[in-house]
Amino acid sequence: MTLNLVVLALLDGVAYAALLFLVAVGLTLIFGVLGILNIAHGSLYAIGAYVTATLGQWLVAAGYNPWLTFPALVVAAVVVGVVLGGAIERLLLQRIYSKEPILQLLVTFAVFMILENLQRMIWGVQPYYMSEPLTLLGNVSVLGINYTAYQVLFLPLAAVAVLIGLRWFLRHTSMGAQILAVTEDREAATAIGINATRVYLMTFILGACFAALGGALATPTTSLVTGMGANMIVLSFAVAATAGLGQIEGAAISALMIGIARSFAVYLSPELEVIMPYLIMVLVLLVRPSGLFGRETVRKI
Amino acid sequence: MSGGELLLRAEGLKLRFGGIIAADGIDLSLHEGEHLAIIGPNGAGKTTFLNICTGYLTPQGGRVTLGGREITGQPPRRITRAGVARAFQIPQLFTEQTVLENMLIAGAAHARRWNPLRDLHAIPERRAMEEMLELVGCTDVRDRLASELPEGKRKLVDIALALALKPKVLLMDEPTSGVASADKFGVMEVLMNALRAARVSSVFVEHDMEMVRLYATRVAVWAQGVIQMTGRPEVVLNDPDVIRNVIGGGHA
Amino acid sequence: MRPALIAFLVLLAVLAGLPFYADNLTVFVTMCLAKSLAVLGILVLIRADQVSFGHAMYFAIGAYAAAFLSSAWRDIDLTLLVLAAMAASMVAGLLVGLFVTRYRGIFFGMINLAFSMVLYSILEKAFHITGGSDGMRIRRPTLMGFEFKRAEFDIVMFYVSLGIAAVCFLLVWRYLRSPLGQALRAVKTNETRLEYLGLSARHVLLAGYVVSAVLCGLGGVLMGTVQGLATPEHGFWSRSAELVFIAVLGGQGHVAGAFAGTVIFETVRTFAAAILDDSWQLILGVVLIAIILWAPGGLVELWQRATRRRPRPASEPVETGRQSMEVRR
What range defines the domain where residue B45 resides? Predict the structure, then answer.
């Protein structure tokens, strides 16, 4: 195992971890606040990616400056997050907050099925590419290894920006305070005048935007294929569960762990690549059933 | 008035949750035939004590023994099988099943009836379970869903479930709370008769001093994480300090 | 329960004559029977209020067990294939179950999904062992020394499946009425109380989990043998989703819902396939949501509402709040 290999695996892992974090943080935020595991999160990731690819391809084909594909990434993510996320929460989730958890789970699972089908109907099964942002940023040299600046610099920076931004948002803005209040105690928050309904909507849209952003940022690095949504929901769940559902900063750490572990597996023992995230999740949960940073709640009797 | 052999004994139990001291060296013992009432201000940690004794919580210091054998920190499952049963302040029932089915599950659990082909309603313990329901006066609601019972009956069924396990010790958390005043006496009377008939010793947390006066054989006063005094009801309940700090202040 | 038993026997008699009066439906009904076994497995877990989003993995394990065995020995007896599938899914169910039954609700559902995705990936990638996405052939087995041609074999498979399904439905029905099975419902409503009765909720759930895995494995071996093929698709998440969908459609109240739901589902799918194959998951999703919002008890509740009988307690939603999301030790 040469130094080259280690550096490559690390860089790869960090880039991948950045994407994992973006999707997982949305999932964990939604769970932490609304108490619902959004199985459709994977589809939001996938559709964010496809919309980005379509938008980017159109921009390039229509002759616009290719640098515009960068803002296109964000625009696509926000559009998908707001439109789809808003629709899901407003039309569907609102009706099931009072239902049994098993039914809530089934509903988000049904949304997942619907979105996966829609995605296949709209974009078909052929692979999509949109690599302008990647090629535009060129390469950098890290310890003698050539790697794309997009993956080594842009992705991790984006992830860190989201992490810091989210932390700041939750602790230093009014909306953030409302979200924290509602999470802590919905009834008490409503009693002091916070509109919990609106908070739920905002939170879900925010989480959806993160998922779509993950997809958007992933687009330049890979070809989009059907099934990426299904893969991503279990992956992001593994990341979120390893950290402890609802743990935002923790998700960054578990994303790094899983991203880097998977990356090493790719280089050293490719058969293990697919299993790696789940292996880590299982190992962590065996030792700490609520996740690395999760708090176990003991029911009062 | 200590009774027969030593059953349950807590020695030096200590437990704190963050800044709150729930137990700071609790020493308490229960002998056979006793019905020990624990009184004290609300939120003082009495329920926590029951939870420690039944294994739901692990103390940070001290130990609990049953008949001399240590049971500290064991899971509720094992402590239950060792002979310590629990009744809850808010009755814990299987809400989607009938009262009889609740009892039958308890009976089957106790007798370890795991034949997957035998109908629950046909287990040999059925007779005993029906008798237990009669003992607590709940035969009339036998076929009703546990979730549809009035509060007093729910309490009795909760206790019946515990008794179905033929325990040596029954720990009860406020057996008459939530029961209408007019029914309290009736519930306690039935309950205590059932306990005596089944030869079960008990510890119960209680706020209603009248109930304590009538049914406890011994009283322990719990305050600030320790047992301040124990003794016969007539002695303890007439103690000026107790009257001032416990009875006068709190009200059931 | 006697009217139900009569209905069951009548249904059995009606089905037993199928190859004589509706020969073209034989294979279709055989596949429905196979699938309904898997749905039955899901129903067992739903008793404890747990949904597995990955049970198709046991379906796949059953089919692949048969595939491996039949490629190792030509003309192997069908009985051995079935036994192998049961053994394989039992062991797998036990191993996964030991881990998964520590969890409830979301974790339970998703960890099952994760395991199934891993299995799917392995089946798909390990080309040299499992044939990759092409899958493995399952050669037509013999039965009690007899070899069969295609047409006869279909009929043999029909009766074998009918027999196995009948026995399983009966056994599961008894199991759910037994103390262990009733304890499953207790796991749903009050695990704490169960522990305080001296019972391990985890063990109760594990027993149910292994039962459900074996049922899925049985479904898988029957389906695979009829189709002559075991593919990774058998274990894909959308297959798990179908099983869950049918279970919810059939209603969690009664085991009969598993078969009724499967037949309706597959009938609709066959008719819709021509026009709506592309939108299949979309329709499933929409219908699932509709059922949950307006008839959570599924078919059985709808039928009971139509015949104006009070729905059995099992199909009434119970307020449990966020209880099942907590981790149980």
Answer: 1-82+203-252
Neighbouring chains to B with at least 3 Cβ pairs closer than 8 Å: A, C
CATH of the domain at B67: 3.40.50.300
Q: Which chains have 3+ CB pairs within 8 A of A? A: B, C
* A140, β-bridge pairs: A147
* pLDDT at res. C320: 33
Q: Find all residues with CB under 8 Å of A230, minimum gap 6, and list them.
A: A42, A116, C117, C237
Tell me the backbone φ, ψ of residue C230, rounded to 5 degrees. -125, 120
Q: Residue C244: list chain A partners with CB under 8 A.
A: 106, 109
Please list the pLDDT of chain C residue by residue as tens digits (329 residues). Answer: 577 788 888 888 888 888 888 888 899 999 999 999 999 999 999 999 899 999 999 999 999 999 999 998 888 889 999 999 999 999 999 999 999 999 888 889 888 988 998 898 889 888 888 888 888 988 888 888 888 888 888 999 999 999 999 999 999 999 999 999 999 999 999 999 999 999 999 999 999 999 999 999 999 999 999 999 999 999 988 899 889 888 887 766 678 888 988 998 898 888 777 776 778 888 888 888 888 888 766 666 666 666 654 444 443 333 333 333 333 33
Say yes or no: C51 contacts chain A, CB-CB below 8 A: yes
Give the chain C residue whose CA is nearest to the CA of B105. Answer: C179
Domains in chain B, number: 1
Kindly state whether residue B38 falls inside one of the protein's structural domains: yes
Provide the number of structural domains found in chain C. 1
In a domain, C165, yes or no: yes
Question: What distance in Å separates the CA atoms of residue A166 and residue B71, rounded to the nearest whole number?
Answer: 47
Residue C29 CA, distance from chain mean position:
15
CA neighbours closer than 13 Å in the CB half-sphere of residue B23: 25
Tell if the CB–CB gap between C110 and A289 is shorter than 8 Å.
no
The answer for residues whose C-beta is within 8 angstroms of residue B141's C-beta and 6 or more apart is B99, B149, B153, B157
- Examine residue C267 and state whether it is found in any structural domain, yes or no: no
Could you tell me where the DSSP H helices lie in A62-100?
69-80, 86-87, 94-96
Distance from C-alpha of B53 to C-alpha of C196, rounded to nearest angstrom? 12
Instruction: Please provide the average confidence, as pLDDT, over all residues in chain C.
Output: 85
How distant is the Cα of C150 from the closest Cα of chain A, in angstroms? 35
Cα–Cα dist C220/A221, whole Å: 38
Interface ipTM? 0.89
B170 and B162 in contact (C-beta within 8 Å)? yes
- CA distances in angstroms from B50 to B23, B38, B56, B225, B252, listed in the order given: 11, 10, 9, 13, 19
pLDDT of residue A250: 92
Within 272-301 of A, beta carbons closer than 8 Å to B belong to 301
Full-model pTM: 0.87
Q: Cα–Cα distance between B26 and C267 in angstroms, integer?
A: 68
| Cβ neighbours for C294, distance < 8 A, ≥ 6 positions apart | none
Residue C243 in any domain: the answer is: no
Of C154, C270, C173, the closest CA to residue C222 belongs to C154
Residue A83 identity (one-letter amino acid): V
Which helix (H) or strand (E) segment is A196 a member of?
A: helix A196-218
Instruction: Please write the tens of the pLDDT for every residue from C178-207.
Output: 999 999 999 999 999 999 999 999 999 999
Separation between Cα atoms, residue B226 and residue B27, nearest integer Å: 8
Range of the structural domain that residue C121 is part of: 23-235
Measured between its terminal Cα atoms, the distance across chain A in Å is 55
Specify burial of residue B14 (Cβ count, 10 A radius: 0-12, 13-18, 19+): middle
